[in-house]
Design goal:
The chain is mainly β. Helix content is about 5%, strand content about 55%. The chain is built from five helices and 39 strands. The strands form six sheets. Strands 1, 22, 23, 24, 25, 26, 27, 28, 29 and 30 form a ten-stranded antiparallel sheet that branches. It has an eight-stranded antiparallel β-barrel with strand order 3-4-5-6-7-8-9-10. The protein has an eight-stranded antiparallel beta barrel with strand order 12-13-14-15-16-17-18-19.
Length: about 550
C-alpha cells in the first residue's frame, strides 16, 4: 500500500480545510480620495439633512453636494461642531471631518433608508487607523438620499432591457465567490470570502460595472467587466478572475427538504447502484447517507473526527471523505473553486467541474498535497433532504495518478443512498450549554438546553467621544441595536462538525452549520462562540 499520504496526513493528525485564499481589502482612504471611478456619473445624491438620536442626545448632519464634491457639517446637543469635506466614490462618500483642532476621516453610504457614517481616527502618520472606527446611523429629515439619473439621460423605460451586460448570476474563482442579481442598471448581492459574507452593490454602464462592497472595516470600491466568459473583478489594484458557476439562483438560499421529491429510479441516467460487485454498505447516521467503498478500496473511520478515509492494496493513494454543510450544487462548486488549502497543501481545479451523478459533481485537481506534488479527482455529493453531504478526494502522487482514480471517486459518489438524518440526542447533550460571542461591538448569547429548547440574543452597541489634542472632551455619541429569538433545536452530525436546526416559536426553521475548533470553542456559520458553562434553562 502506498503510505506516503497516510504517514504525512493521518498519523500527523493534520487537518485539511476547503478554501483559504486571502483577499486583501483596500483600507487607505487617502488613496480613495485621489481616485475617481470612471462610473461616478451614477453617483448617489447625499444632499440633505439627517438626524440621529441616542442616549437623550441628538446629532444633526447636513450635506451639500455639487457634482462629486460634498461639504457640510456635523453638530449636536453634546456640543459637537464639525465640518465635512470630501468626494463621492460610486455609492459611497469619503473625506475628512474636522473641528475643535481635531480631524478624523469619514466614510458614508446609504443602506435601505438610513445613512451610515463611519468615523475613522488617524494614525500618527496621518493615515486612517481602521482599528478605531465608529459608526453612526442617521435618518433623513429632508432632501437627498436618492440615486441620480445619468447625466444627460432621460428617465429610463422600466420595460426596456437596454444594451448593458447581464451581471446577474453566481461567479467563483481565485478564492472569491460573488452572487449578483441585476435589475436594470442596478446590481446587488453578496461577496463571499473565507466563510464570511459581505454585501455588494453597484451599477452597470455598457459592459462594465462599478460599486462598493461593505465589510466590518468600511466600504471598498470595485470594478468589474467580462473578458470572454471570465468576469474580471478588480479591487485595490488586484484582479480576480471569476467563472460563472450556475444560473442566477442565490447560492446562499437555504433549501428546504422536499419529502415528495421522486427518488432516482434504477434506470436513472446516473446509476445509483453498482451491480458488478459486492461490497459492505456503510451507514453514516449523522450525514443521513450510506455508501459502498469502490472496488479495491478499504474504508476506515477516524475515531477522533468520525470521518472516513480509504486505502488500497492495489491502487496507489488514498480517498479522503470530508463532510460539508452546503445545500446546493452552486454552493458546492463555489467552495471547490477555492481549492483545498492548508499550510502544506494547495490543490486547485485543473479541469471543469461536471455533473457525475444524480446528486454529485466532480473534477480533477492538481498541486501539492502535504508538500508532495499530487493529483486527484474530487467528487462532491449534496443531499436531497436538505443541507449536507461530503466531498471525496481520491489523491495520489502526480506520477501515479491515472483514470482509475477518477473512476473510483465517481463509483463512490454513485453508491450513495440518502435518508433523513437522525437527530443525535447524545450530541445534543454534549453541545448543551451557555455560549457567548464577542465580535467587534456585537455581543451574542446562545443558550442550548438539554431538553431541546434554545434562546438567542444579540446586542450591538456603539459609543464614544471626541477630544482635542489636550485630551479635553469636545462631544460624544452613542447608538445601540438588539435582536433575538427562542424556540426548539436539534443537532445532526458528530462532535467534530454537523448542523444545528433551529425552529423559532413562530415556526421559522433555520439550519446552521457548526464546527468544533478547540476546547470549548465552536464555529456556528463562521461566527466563533465560546462555552461559558452549563445552560441555565429554568
Amino acid at each position: 500500500m502506498d503510505n506516503f499520504l497516510y504517514e504525512k496526513f493521518f498519523k500527523a493528525g493534520n487537518s485539511l480545510r476547503i478554501g483559504g485564499n486571502v483577499l486583501y481589502f483596500v483600507k487607505k482612504i487617502s488613496a480613495v480620495l485621489g481616485f475617481l471611478l470612471c462610473f461616478s456619473v451614477f453617483s448617489v445624491n447625499f444632499s440633505g439633512s439627517y438626524t440621529m438620536s441616542s442616549n437623550n442626545a441628538k446629532l444633526y448632519l447636513y450635506i451639500k453636494q455639487s457634482g462629486i464634491n460634498i461639504s457640510g457639517g456635523l453638530t449636536g446637543t453634546t456640543g459637537a461642531d464639525f465640518k465635512l469635506t470630501g468626494k463621492v466614490e460610486g455609492e459611497a462618500a469619503v473625506g475628512k471631518c474636522y473641528g475643535n483642532n481635531i480631524a478624523v476621516f469619514f466614510n458614508m453610504y446609504f443602506e435601505d433608508s438610513s445613512l451610515y457614517v463611519q468615523l475613522i481616527e488617524p494614525k500618527a502618520d496621518g493615515t486612517p487607523d481602521w482599528s478605531k472606527v465608529r459608526e453612526l446611523v442617521f435618518v433623513k429629515s429632508g432632501g437627498g438620499g436618492v440615486v441620480s439619473q445619468r447625466q444627460g439621460q432621460s428617465s429610463a423605460n422600466p420595460l426596456s432591457k437596454g444594451n448593458s451586460t447581464n451581471f446577474g448570476g453566481n461567479f467563483a474563482g481565485d478564492g472569491l465567490k460573488v452572487s449578483l442579481s441585476q435589475s436594470g442598471s442596478i446590481i446587488k448581492g453578496t461577496l463571499m470570502f473565507n466563510g464570511s459574507n459581505f454585501k455588494i452593490k453597484g451599477k452597470v454602464s455598457g459592459n462594465k460595472a462599478a460599486g462598493v462592497f461593505s465589510t466590518g472595516n468600511g466600504n471598498f470600491n470595485f470594478t468589474a467587466g467580462f473578458k470572454g466568459n471570465t468576469l474580471l473583478f478588480e479591487t485595490g489594484g488586484t484582479v480576480y478572475r471569476l467563472k460563472r458557476i450556475g444560473g442566477s439562483s442565490n447560492p446562499l438560499a437555504r433549501r428546504k427538504a422536499n419529502h415528495l421529491a421522486k427518488k432516482p429510479s434504477e434506470n436513472s441516467k446516473y446509476p445509483q447502484k453498482t451491480t458488478s460487485r459486492k461490497g459492505k454498505r456503510i451507514t453514516v447516521d449523522s450525514l443521513g447517507l450510506s455508501f459502498v467503498p469502490p472496488k479495491g478500496w478499504i474504508a476506515k473511520q477516524d475515531p477522533k473526527t468520525g470521518n472516513y478515509y480509504m486505502g488500497s492494496n492495489s491502487i496507489p493513494g488514498y480517498i479522503l471523505m470530508l463532510p460539508h454543510n452546503y445545500a446546493t450544487f452552486d454552493q458546492l462548486v463555489a467552495a471547490a473553486a477555492e481549492g483545498f488549502v492548508d499550510q502544506s497543501t494547495n490543490m486547485h481545479a485543473s479541469s471543469d467541474i461536471e455533473k457525475v451523478g444524480e446528486y454529485a459533481v466532480g473534477g480533477e485537481f492538481s498541486g501539492t498535497f502535504q508538500n508532495v506534488p499530487a493529483r486527484a479527482y474530487v467528487v462532491g455529493v449534496v443531499s436531497p433532504n436538505g443541507s449536507g453531504g461530503f466531498m471525496a478526494m481520491c489523491v495520489t502522487t502526480t506520477q501515479k495518478y491515472s483514470n482509475t482514480h477518477k473512476k473510483s471517486a465517481i463509483e463512490l459518489a454513485n453508491s450513495v443512498r440518502f435518508f433523513q438524518a437522525k437527530v443525535n440526542s447524545g450530541l445534543m447533550n454534549w453541545l448543551a450549554g451557555e455560549y457567548y460571542s464577542y465580535v467587534g461591538s456585537t455581543e451574542r448569547k446562545l443558550m442550548l438546553c438539554p431538553n431541546g429548547r434554545y434562546s438567542y440574543y444579540s446586542e450591538s452597541s456603539y459609543g464614544g467621544g471626541f477630544s482635542d489634542q489636550y485630551g479635553n472632551s469636545t462631544g460624544s455619541w452613542g447608538a445601540a441595536d438588539n435582536g433575538g429569538s427562542s424556540g426548539s433545536w436539534k443537532a445532526v452530525g458528530n462532535k467534530s462538525r454537523g448542523t444545528l436546526i433551529f425552529t423559532t416559536n413562530k415556526g421559522e426553521v433555520d439550519e446552521r452549520g457548526f464546527q468544533v475548533v478547540g476546547k470549548g470553542v465552536i464555529l456556528i456559520d463562521g461566527t466563533k462562540f465560546a462555552y461559558k458553562g452549563r445552560a441555565n434553562c429554568n
